[in-house]
Structures are given as structure tokens and as C-alpha cells.
Amino acid sequence: MTDRLICPVTVVVLVVLVVLVVVPDTQHPSTDTSTLP
After folding, report:
1. What angle do CA 7, 16, 34 make, to 5 degrees?
2. pTM (predicted TM-score)
3. Could you read off the pLDDT of 1-37 as tens digits, one per residue?
């Protein structure tokens, strides 16, 4: 049970982290930073 939950959760977390790091780094948004730190 736990393995079936941990695997997808880990994948989702990794994807979210990659998106948060790569998207701003490639686009360099200047006006859409209202939701970003």
C-alpha cells in the first residue's frame, strides 16, 4: 500500500520541483512574479 502511494507522490514532487526550477529559469518572468517568491 505505501509503495503504491510513495512512488507516485515522489514522481509528482520531483516533477513539481523541476517545473518550478526550470520554467522561471528559462522564461525569466518579470510581471508574473506575483505568485512567485
Report:
1. 155
2. 0.47
3. 567 777 888 999 999 998 888 776 665 555 555 555 5
Which three cell numbers, joined as nine digits, stand for 5?
502511494
- Listed in sequence order, the residues at least 6 apart from 25 whose beta carbon sits closer than 8 Å to its beta carbon are none
Angle, alpha carbons 17-1-4 (nearest 5°): 35
Contact 24, 36 (CB under 8 A): yes
Outline where DSSP puts E strands in 1-37: none
- Rounded to the nearest 10 degrees, how much is the dihedral formed by the CA atoms of 16, 30, 33, 22? 10
Residue 24: partners with Cβ closer than 8 Å, 6 or more residues away: 36
